[in-house]
Write a structure and sequence with these properties.
The protein has 148 residues and is of the alpha+beta class. The protein has five helices and nine strands, in the order βααβββαβαβαβββ.
């Protein structure tokens, strides 16, 4: 049985999983303290996500990570559906930023997001090493948005 918990203390205990989606700890430290962390369990921990307020109308899905052996099993989509339901009464829009990786962009589009805008050189300007997803170097941040 799947259960999703909001984590309010000791959020760094999930750092190993958070680093799968955002591999530089000091970048995670910018949103984790004030962000809402959710953990999805089915027997054991499968996925986590962090949602942060951007303004009174908008929140951002800052991190969504599933252990590799559980990827493709629907856990990420279940978390997106759960947080969308929670935040629909508080915000109008949810954003998510990701690298220009076709499989990830397709995942978010299937989850109800559409491409919004691009932040040029985000990964090269904000990370201390070149970022790759497989053999694709991440340069620009692609933002997608979803109406809640």
């Amino acid at each position: 049985m799947i259960r999703i918990e909001k984590i309010t203390e000791n959020k760094k205990q999930f750092l190993d999983l958070l680093l799968l989606a955002d591999e530089q700890e000091n970048m995670i430290d910018k949103y984790l303290p004030d962000g809402d962390l959710f953990a999805l369990y089915e027997d054991d921990l499968k996925s986590v996500c962090v949602v942060a307020q951007i303004d009174s109308q908008t929140c951002e899905l800052k991190n969504l990570a599933t252990y590799q052996k559980y990827q493709g099993m629907g856990y990420g989509r279940k978390l997106i559906n759960y947080i969308s339901d929670i935040y629909k009464n508080r915000y109008k829009t949810m954003l998510v930023g990701t690298g220009e990786t076709p499989i990830i962009l397709a995942f978010y589009e299937k989850s109800g997001f559409e491409i919004s805008h691009r932040v040029k050189n985000f990964f090269t300007d904000n990370y201390d090493h070149p970022m790759f997803d497989g053999d694709i170097q991440l340069i620009d941040m692609i933002y997608l948005k979803k109406n809640l």
